[in-house]
Design goal:
Number of strands: 11
Order of helices and strands: EEEEEEHEEEEEHH
Helix content: 10-25%
Low-confidence stretches: 166-181
């Protein structure tokens, strides 16, 4: 199978690689089938690419890679909806937003993670009221360091060259994975 997207061009995939979100994502109810693959080599970020709407792709993370102390309970109804009544064998992903020109301010939605049953590839976006939908990913002290480095680049190389060096580049996936684990 293949999809023709605007971001990655043609992506070939097998049916067993598709993650099914029967209810879609909040604001994207028509996108119910997705592919998950690494953002780049050795990256903690992944692409969640819609199969149904090729122009839609999200950057996602495993939130436990960034927030090791995070804990939450998957409600029974959510676990049952993805065919995982015990809540085991799941992967958790949260959507990331990166403000244009300000990557140091990237945030993730910890209040609405996507839970995927790794055995049957069924998933669901769930609600966790205890967490923020706009959680900063980079701690304040590291954001300050990044901002200072970017400003220094602008002084040394000029604004245009510094923007080129710091802008997000489109990354063509090297390979697809079945699960993020």
């Amino acid at each position: 199978m293949e999809i023709h997207g605007t971001r990655f061009g043609v992506l070939e995939f097998e049916e067993h690689e598709v993650i099914i979100l029967n209810e879609g994502l909040l604001g994207f109810p028509l996108s119910r089938r997705f592919l998950l693959f690494p953002y780049g080599q050795d990256s903690s970020f992944f692409w969640l690419q819609s199969v149904d709407e090729a122009e839609i792709a999200f950057i996602v993370i495993n939130p436990f890679d960034f927030f090791a102390e995070m804990e939450f309970v998957i409600q029974d109804a959510d676990a049952e909806a993805i065919g995982c009544p015990g809540g085991e064998d799941v992967e958790i992903f949260s959507l990331v937003t990166i403000p244009e020109g300000r990557p140091e301010e990237m945030r993730t939605n910890l209040a609405g993670p996507v839970v995927v049953n790794t055995a049957n590839r069924m998933g669901r976006q769930i609600l966790i009221k205890e967490y923020s939908p706009r959680q900063l990913l980079i701690p304040e002290h590291l954001r300050q360091t990044y901002t200072q480095e970017r400003e220094e680049e602008q002084r040394r190389f000029g604004r245009q060259e510094a923007r080129r060096r710091f802008r997000r580049e489109k990354v063509v996936p090297q390979r697809r994975i079945a699960a993020a684990g």
